[in-house]
Amino acid sequence: MDSSIESIGMEKKSTDISNMVELDIDGDTTPLANTGDRVTSLLVVSTASVVFGSSAQFGFQTGVMNSPMDVIVTIFENTTCTSPYEEHSRCSSGQNLYALAIAIYAVGGLIGAFVCGKIADTLGRKPTLLLNNILAVAGSVMMLISSSFPLLIAGRFVLGLNGSVNTGLAPMYLTEIATVRLRGLFGTLNQLGIVTFIFLSQLLGLPQLLGNKHLWRLLFGFPLVLATVQLLTLPFCPESPRYLFLQKQTERATIRVLQRLRGTEFVQTEMDELKLELQREVMAHRVSYIQLFTDRTLRRPVIVCVGLQLAQQLSGIGGVFYYSTKIFKEAGFSLGEAATVVTSSILIPMTLVAVWLMDRSGRRTLMLYGLGGMMLFHICLSIAFCFQVGFYADEVASLC
To answer: Considering only Cβ atoms within 10 Å of each terminal Cβ, which end of the chain, N or C, has fewer?
Structure first.
């Protein structure tokens, strides 16, 4: 009897969904406007709010710890650490704590990644992004007022939680408010915002600007500006139409949001796409985490996804973001901060080049060439550091 009741309930739910996703093809005689390439002011403001408040926030926090390392260690430990081989007994403790402050950011991000998606599906994309600024403000203030490593480390941990939401939710919101034709471009804007503000954080970290013993607090306080921008602009932006329809199943609210974003009343084409997507989700077979590894049809895609993430994280880019200034100084560059700025500036044009090549060379080919090139340069770099005796070894290390 229980199974019969459950079957009746499932059939009723399926019927309700079918009624909801019935497409208005034959019955709707209203002409549909072609809004595929139209960019409204609301769409621009919504995109700018998320790029500057979330993508830029993550990028700035990724690069900001690089250049002022020696300045902060010196202030906090009251020692002069010009080299890891000098004053080792006094300097190693401060450098280890600074390294912990860098690494704890990833720990916060790992913890936040487990709950980010659930919160976004429960509260919505827009409210989650707004609430995430509490973490941005709290972490930035902790770093701004810090005079010892414990508070600096705690601030970085809080900002790691903030970063996990930014990396997961910002590209999601951008692609969900964009039209189909513009989704690739909007996804690129997220990455462009990240690399641009990595460059800006390291530029501002120059000793001639904010990376000195007098102004380093302003460097860590700059993210407050980005949080303020989002807090002032995002409340005027709409919720994701995809979230409203697929998660909340509120058709009228979805239509109103789409009409505001597209600047037209004719949004039936997009509504039909959302209805089809909802129908596919209802009919889709749900799998558990264990099935991802036991089901042969799912195991290979999972291995590919995990492999790509490992390739990205183990490529050495983290060392460039966090320790390039120190690496350059050890390789013989007295102006390590300036060399770091030059290195990070390459990220911006290469992001645009990668987007251009992606559809021409293919994703797989591009990944293989990129990973192969990184492997060769890592070998080159390792050899140079192992035999760092003389002019040519320094030059090779710097070039790599």
So the answer is: N
Contact assessment for residue 343 and residue 324, using Cβ atoms and an 8 Å cutoff:
yes
Whether the Cβ atoms of residue 358 and residue 366 lie closer than 8 Å to each other: yes
Alpha carbons 92 and 80: distance in angstroms, whole number: 11
Exposure of 395 in the CB half-sphere (CA atoms within 13 A): 3
Q: How far is CA 199 from CA 14, 68, 139, 222, 340, in A?
A: 51, 14, 21, 14, 9
pLDDT for residue 34? 47
* Cα gap 399→75, rounded to integer Å: 31
C-alpha 137/C-alpha 140 separation (Å) is 5
The whole-angstrom separation of Cα 72 and Cα 400 is 27
Report residue 283 as tokens: 């009919």
Instruction: Give the integer Cα–Cα distance in Å for 109 and 123.
Output: 20
The pair of structure tokens assigned to 128 is 């989650």
Q: What is the pTM of this model?
A: 0.80
- % of residues, the chain, pLDDT over 90: 28
Q: Tokens in use for 229?
A: 């921008």
